[in-house]
Amino acid sequence: MRRNKVVGVGAVALTLGLALSACGTTEDGDGGGDAGGGDAACDVSLAFFGPETGPAAGLGAPIIDGAQLAIDQYNEDAECEVGYEKFDSQGNPDEAPNLAPEVASDEAIIGVVGPAFSGESAAAGPIFADAGVPTITPSATNPTLAENGWDTFHRALGNDATQGPAAAKYIQETIGSEATFVIDDASEYGAGLAGIVEDSLGDVVVGTDTIQAGDTDFSATVTKAVDSKADTIFFGGYYAEATILIGQLRDGGFDGQFVVADGVKDPAYLEAGDDAEGTIITCPCIPDTDPAVAEFAEAFEAEFGSAPGTYAAEAYDAANIFLDGIAEGIDNREDMLEFVNEYDEAGVTKQLAFDETGEPTDVHVYSYTVEGGEIVPEGEIE
């Protein structure tokens, strides 16, 4: 039976809401899953696969905690607690092939929240597919990941084939750009997204360039961008490079609009200070101010002492899909994969269901702006 994952409303009801999430209820009010039916699976675990340390750890932390909250809620009254294993890839596609076999060899792990990034997803995906390990990434957005024939792959958010055109639409219709320069960081994620934005913008693009992740001197790219007379620059990449890049662009004389995507939506980007002000960020991640996630955000802050970061809610949804299966007694990868493939339930972020390639059937893209030293949601890009 599907668990009731509704989080308690308000401070007074918060504790009650967490308990209800853990024990589950059925539509007729009887206990579901382990608490009522006594048929929940035992001796099983979920795993996180992504950056826990390293330069991209800021994007991994909310995913870790989002899944942790779901598991903690489930375990609060469970007769058999679900384990939670973390596999720290540092977001590095070179590390992923060495780490994925550790997940595959632990048969107690029947679901993976992740991999977090596109590059490591491409590297680890074949290994998970061969081992039959169901995965639900809350954050990897490269469209080609769903084109590899991995029946174990699922994505809890829209891919860059939807985010890229949405970003281009914002650049053209909201900003009104007449000349956009496109930069990428050569990563699977950044280059892929930048290419989609470039194609979507068409003749508006006045130049492109590529930087390398880990570099700190972007003067050659800054010169090209400034010389292009662009009024807008789009960057496909992560926050570590974006923080440096925007400072060097401003120092180099660029005073136009800077547009980035979900890989930059991290508080660490705000370390750029005044240079970051006005930056537009696109993301297929729902704002934590949205009424649909307000109760989740309240529970998250109660447990971790801070507001949920990027992809925390998507990770919470991903973990809860697996936990729903465990509550119904699923204790092996084969049955869990079938359960995930057929899943169609309301989550915190959207209606959670997948097509035959593992893509979500419900997709939204949102815009944010850096204002007053904070990342502030603007709304959905329609």
From TrEMBL:
Residues 44-371 form the Leucine-binding protein domain. Pfam families: Peripla_BP_6. Residues 1-21 form the signal peptide. Coiled coil: none annotated. InterPro entries: Leu-bd (IPR028081), Leu_Ile_Val-bd (IPR000709), Peripla_BP_I (IPR028082). CDD domains: PBP1_ABC_LIVBP-like. The keyword Nucleotidyltransferase does not apply. SUPFAM superfamilies: Periplasmic binding protein-like I. Keywords: Amino-acid transport, Signal, Transport. GO terms for biological process: amino acid transport. PROSITE patterns: PROKAR_LIPOPROTEIN (PS51257). It comes from the Bacteria. Belongs to the leucine-binding protein family. This is Branched-chain amino acid transport system substrate-binding protein. It comes from Nocardioides thalensis.
